[in-house]
Amino acid sequence: MSHQSASSDVASVDMADVASMDASGKSDNSNPDNPTLDSQATAQGEQTHLANKAFIIKADVNFAVKDVVATKDQLESLTLQTGGYIQTSKIYNNTTDTHRYPIGGEQLKVLTHFVRHGMMTVRIPKANVGEFLKGVQGQVVFLDGQEFNATDVALDLQRNALHAQIEAERQAKLGELDATKTDDLADKSTHVGEMTNSKYRQTLAELDRKALAEQVAFSTITLAFYQNPQIFESVMPDTKAYIAKDERANFGHRFVQSIGTGWLYFLEFILWLASLWAFALGLIVAALFYKKVFKPFYNRPFRKKTTSETVKPKEIGNKESASK
Predict the structure, then answer these.
(1) Largest CA distance in the chain
(2) Is residue 259 domain-resident?
(3) Which one of 10, 159, 209, 301 is at 20 to 30 Å from 318 when CA atoms are compared?
């Protein structure tokens, strides 16, 4: 039976103290470590001198929270309450360290040090971005960073609208031509092809304009958040202990198996030696040839020479004795 639990590490600075949460659950925006998330970039389109601009607003916010899962649920609810929709939402753990040690009974205790992260991409109506960010502010314990981008696409919208208008006028002109008055099939085919291509280009221009208009109307906000590092405790079987126990219990059986295996290896060795009969026969033939043929033939001149050399000293000795 496994035991599982999670406990938070104690940081050098208590993040709850940094947050300065009040009784209502909202953050104290006066804390310099937890500044306001809102930006003038989200509402600059309302300025009179920017009335002819069409801004696509994108925001990226990275911050720490007390509980990633609870924050994710609250931010999803906040997104729907402010008239937006959730594009992506995920939670994942980043494991930074793992320790294992035996606790007896063929079991291991595993300590996993991890940091839980959450990431969301939401689309919020431009008019409600400020309200949404104020709601996010209540979840922030420590703000790591934020970034706002405003891209003016007013000219792109006008360009797409103009393309759609030009293609509509082109279709009107083509519609005034009566292709039935000619018997030339090539002319009829060209007329139909030009009409179809014009409608296609008009549709693409209108779709591009609608896509840009949707990005202007709904701002894209990416939220990346995390919580304090935690330690997850679990108990799992000790595989090495199980193997060692099994080896001790089956020693006799394994001993008999080892004897049988050794006997099989011995038989294989005998068979291997038997496979060398041709090589052994060749060695025997070579030895007999050397002893019976090559060696006598090789040693014959040396024997004669040795005999002659041994006789001469005797003859010399006899001659000397005779002369005396």
Answers:
(1) 161
(2) no
(3) 301
- Same domain? 128 vs 176: no
How many CB atoms neighbour CB 21 within 10 A? 16
Strands of 162-217 (E only): list them: none
Q: Rounded to whole angstroms, how far apart are CA atoms 301 and 307?
A: 10
Cβ atoms of 227 and 67 within 8 Å: the answer is yes
**Domain membership flag for residue 313:** no
Three-class SS of residue 47?
coil
Q: Which of 68-72, 163-167, 193-197, 252-256 shows the lowest mean pLDDT across its residues?
A: 252-256
**Per-residue pLDDT at 3 exceeds 60:** no
The answer to whether the Cα torsion of 33, 37, 38, 39 is positive or negative is positive
The structure tokens listed for 46 are 């309302």
| pLDDT tens digits for range 196-231 | 787 888 888 888 888 888 888 999 999 999 999 999
Residues 6+ apart with CB under 8 A from 235: 1, 2, 3, 4, 103, 107, 108, 109, 110
Domain carrying residue 110 = 5-156+216-237
Residue 310 pLDDT more than 70? no
pTM higher than the cut 0.85: no
Distances (CA, A) of 105 to 73, 234, 245, 249, 265: 41, 15, 11, 16, 39
In DSSP terms, 152 is beta-bridged to 55
**CA 7 to CA 136: how far, in whole Å?**
26
DSSP helix/strand/coil, 294: helix
Q: Which amino acid is at 196?
A: T
Residue 110 falls inside a structural domain? yes
